[in-house]
Amino acid sequence: MSSKFKGRMKTQRYALRTQEDMAILENHTFLFIPNVNSPTLNFLAGLVAKEGGKVINDMNHMDTETIVLITDSFVSERQSIIHEDFLRKESDLDIDYIYDYMVKNSVKCVRVSKVSKWLKDGKLTISEAELVHLAPIDKENSTDGNISLDSESATDVEETDGDEKRPCEHRDEAQETPKGSDGEHSRSVETTWSKNELVIRFLDILAHRYKVKGDSFRSRGYNLAKIGIQRLSHEIESGTQAQKEVSNVGPSIAKKIQTILETGSLPGAHESPQFEKNLQYLSKCHNVGAYTARRWANLGLKSFVEVSQKFPNELRIDWPILFGWSFYEDWSIPIPRQECSEIEKIINQELKLVDPECKMEIQGSYLRGADYCGDLDMLFYKKNCNDTTELSSIMEEVAIRLYHRDYIKCFLQLTPKICKLFAPKILERFKKCNLQVETITPSNERIKKFYFGFKIPESTANYENHKSLLSPNDQFMSLNTKVGNPCRRVDFFSCKWSELGASRLQWTGPKEFNRWLRMIAINKQMKLTQHGLFDKNDTLIESFDDTKIFQLLDQPYIAPEERNHVFKKRRSK
C-alpha cells in the first residue's frame, strides 16, 4: 500500500471521527444556571451549540429531557446546590420554578465543567454520582428530595386573575414581611398605620405566602402592587382608585384593597396553618431558598436550631446560612436612602486610599430613586482597566480594610486572605449551635464578587414595625442590633472599563426592564448581555456607552428613575 494512499485513509478516518465528535450533543437541550453571561460560560455555550446541542435561555422551553448545567461554584463537594441567594441574584430566571420542574420531572442537573469532559471523551455520559442534588445529601439524616407542598399550604384567601400575573421587580426591592404579619399583634399595629401602610402590609403577606408556595406569578403580582402603592405620595381611599392609579393593580387585587380599607383586615390573611407559618419563617433566612424551606417545613421543622440538629451537614456545607440566622432580624429591615448614601461615602473613602483611580457607585433600586432598598449592589470599575483580576484585588483590599475598621461584620464568601482573617468567626458560629467543624476552606476559584454584612455605628430611625423576629428557640444565635443601626447586606462586584455601559444597564434593573430590552434585541437578531450588545454572529457592536445601546435598539434613552414605569406608559398607549 502506497504512503499516499495510507495518508488519504488516515485523513478520511480523522474526518469521520470529527463528524462523530461534532454530533455528540445533537438532539440534547441544555439550560445554563445562573446564566451564560460570563466569558467562560458563554464560550462553553458556544461549544455546546457547535457540537449539535441546543442552548435555551428560559424555562418556557424546558422539557423533561433538558439537561441543566450549573456553575461549579454553586455545587458542594457532596454534589448539592449551595449559596442559593447568590445564585438567584446572578440569574434572570425563576429559580424556584426551575427547581420545582426539575424535581417533578426528574430533570438531570450536572456541573457545567462536565461539558469539557464530554467533548474530551467524545460522548455524553452522566453517571449517578455526577448528578447535582437540589436537596443536600446528609448521611446522618437522609431524606427524599421529591417534596411536594403539604395540603394545608394550599390555603388561599382568594383566587387571583390574570391582571396580577406581572413579572417581578429587581430583587433588592422585595422587602420582608413586617412584624405582626402572622397575626400575633396585628390589631394593635393596624390602628396606628396609614391606609397605604396597611394595604402594603397585607399585600406583602400575600406576596410572601405565594412565594413560599412556589407560585411565583401571584407572588410577583402582589409584590408589584405593593411597590406601586409604596411610591404614591397620597393616601389610597378605595380599591377602584388603586386600580386606576397603580399599573400593577388588577380587579382582584383592587377588591382585596377595598376590603382592607373598609375593615382594616383581610379575611383569612392571619389564619395560616402552622405549616405555612413555619414555611414563611424559614424562607426569610439569607441563603435559604423557597425549595429548601419547603423541604424543611414538610419534615416538621420550625426553627433553625431544629435544622442544625436534623441536617447538620447542610449548614456545614452552606455556612453563610449561619449568618443569615444570626442576622435574621437585621437583614429583614429595609435600608433608608440616606443610610445607603452614608454607606457609599464610607466605602468610597476607603477605596480612595487603596486605589484613587478606581471608582464605585451604587446600582439597583437606589439608582432608580427608591426611598428604601433591600440590599446594596456596589459596582467597581477603573478607567482603561479590563483586568477583572486587578479589580478583584482592589475590592478584596477595600473589604479587608473595612473589616478592620469594624464596618464589615461578616463575609459570605472566602478568598484565602479573607478566610485566614474570618475563619475563626465562622468556627465560632458553628460552635455556638453545637456543630463540630475543624477547618474552613476558601474558594479555589478567583472570587470576583464579594458579599458581606455591613454596619455603620449610629442611627435614629425606628425599625420595629419592619422587623422579622427570630423565634425564641433561635435567639441564642442572634447577632442582631438591639440599639443603633442594623447590619446591612452589601455586595461588591466589578466590570471591565470597556463594558461599563452594558454592566450599568444590567445592574440598574429592574429585571423585567432588562428582559424587555433583551427581547427587543432578539427581535432585531441581536443579543444583549451585561457584556454588551452583539450581532447575530456574536460580534460585539457596543458595550461602553449605554445611551448608544438604546440608539442601536431604536429606543429612546430611558433614565434609571423612569425604568420602573416603562411598562405602565406602554400599557396606557
Automatic annotation (TrEMBL):
Domain of life per record: Eukaryota
UniProt keyword terms in alphabetical order: Cytoplasm, DNA damage, DNA repair, DNA-binding, DNA-directed DNA polymerase, Magnesium, Metal-binding, Nucleotidyltransferase, Nucleus, Transferase
Start-end of Polar residues biased regions: 143-152
Chief place where the protein resides: nucleus
UniProt-listed Gene3D superfamilies: Beta Polymerase, domain 2, DNA polymerase beta, N-terminal domain-like, DNA polymerase, thumb domain
InterPro entries assigned to the protein according to its UniProt record, in alphabetical order: DNA-dir_DNA_pol_X, DNA_pol_B_palm_palm, DNA_pol_lambd_fingers_domain, DNA_pol_lamdba_lyase_dom_sf, DNA_Pol_thumb_sf, DNA_pol_X, DNA_pol_X_beta-like, HHH_MUS81
DNA-directed DNA polymerase X domain boundaries: 194-564
Catalytic residues in the record: 256 (nucleophile)
UniProt keyword annotation of DNA-binding present: yes
Listed Pfam families: DNA_pol_B_palm, DNA_pol_B_thumb, DNA_pol_lambd_f, HHH_8
Record's compositionally biased regions (Basic and acidic residues): 163-188
Listed EC numbers: 2.7.7.7
GO biological process: base-excision repair; double-strand break repair via nonhomologous end joining
Catalyses which reaction(s): DNA(n) + a 2'-deoxyribonucleoside 5'-triphosphate = DNA(n+1) + diphosphate
Gene Ontology molecular functions: DNA binding; DNA-directed DNA polymerase activity; metal ion binding
Cofactor(s) essential for the protein: Mg(2+)
Alphabetical list of PANTHER family matching this protein: DNA POLYMERASE BETA (PTHR11276:SF42), DNA POLYMERASE TYPE-X FAMILY MEMBER (PTHR11276)
Name of the featured protein: DNA polymerase
